[in-house]
Design brief:
Shape: elongated
Number of strands: 16
Distance between the termini: 25 Å
Radius of gyration: 29 Å
Structural class: alpha/beta
Largest sheet: 7 strands, mixed
Bound molecules: pyridoxal-5'-phosphate
Number of helices: 20
Length: 478
Amino acid sequence: MTTDNLTPVDAAGATPPSAADESARWRRLPSVDRLLQDPALSESEWPRALLVDAVRAVVAAARADLAAGAEPPTRAALIDAALARLRRQATPSLRVVINATGVVLHTNLGRAPISDAAAKAMAEVSAGYSNLEFDLDSGERGSRHTHVRSLLRELTGAEDGLAVNNNAGAVLLALSALASGREIIISRGQAVEIGGGFRIPDVMRQSGGDLVEVGTTNRTYLADYERAITPRTALLLRVHPSNFRVDGFVHSVGIDELADLGQRAGVAVMDDVGSGALLNPRTFGLGDEPLIQDSVRAGATVVCFSGDKLLGGPQAGIIVGKSEAVERIRRHPLARALRIDKACLAALEATLRHYQRGEAVSEIPIWRAIARSTEELEQRASALASAIASPRVQPVTMRSTVGGGSLPQETLPSWGLAIAPADSPGAQSVATLAERLRRNTTPIVARVERDTVLLDLRTVEPADDDVVRQAIVTILNE
Ligand SMILES: *Cc1c(COP(=O)(O)O)cnc(C)c1O
């Protein structure tokens, strides 16, 4: 993996070493056994087998250096290197980081952080047995789909609902169950790629449905759908173009009109709202994102959305809609392959309960981040900057984004810290500063813009401010 960082000793010298010098040099390298007897290792908490491996590895590295002409490292240096190696190996690969990018739903940073209640539910259900598929009333086999069904109905107004692994899976499953072997009509402007290689036309084909594109890239009318309907048509599909906006000479058909047409023609209408939201982002000075309730009310047969975008929950794909369609989806063989796991199900239920109790904005981290006032953010930025007390660190205004394929091009005013590079020769570059932040015990991910490191406090939980302060102070002193 990584190389063991032993103090390199320069073997420089014009004259080649004598044979006697040479063997003395090798003898000064302690043996693996001798090193293992050192109390710093023998009395450490590391299991013996791991200690032996680590000591062998650092001694082998030292031998290689010796062969290349280096001086033998000291015993203390070897022990430190072995312990450092053990610590490195014990660091988990998947770790908690502090998101100081200002991108609320950062796909590379795991999208939505879940609420405390959701994390607790997830941990408890995972650590013990649960009634996942067991009916506590009858004592008989139950279904995992019962746990969020009534919450989904209540919150979205739909007749029925179920959750699967993720929204890509939800789209594939719903199309497979409702349109396999028949035609799916979609506007040419909505045959999009969502990210991570999720292409709507590919998923439509994968489901066994025949893709029928109507309209043009920028303009599609109701009549385009109407003309394309044949006896083979199973479904009209609307896809929310999550991560881009088309402006100017454009026209698309709203879900209301599409649902009406579906009803008249006797074909199903599916709305993939992508992120979807139960709360209106407009309340927080953002633009429009389709509201799940609106699509249900408009009469879509099924509506699907992600659990970890603007819902602010765990990874999941949720399908709500008319009873008969949802039941068909639930019974499809792919539903088993794409089923949601118990930990995510527990977190999803806890997340939905926040909406039920009207406490989503205070309890769900992404809504908390979106709702944070500029006054609060400015106050935190100033407090941090004064505590750090370096002319290189200043509180500054910046703009946060929502990300995660929602609200493209929309920003929220924010505050954070700007770290300038030192102007002394050979000083750390901003890239190095950003790298040092990522190497912090709890890695901090910041933005680099125009030769400044920017930390946006909107996406940093106030409880983490002190970790950020300490990391910056340490780095500035390096
Ligand atoms: C994000 C998105 C998906 C994929 O959802 P995942 O939960 O990432 O699987 C599908 N459709 C749309 C419109 C999306 O925005």
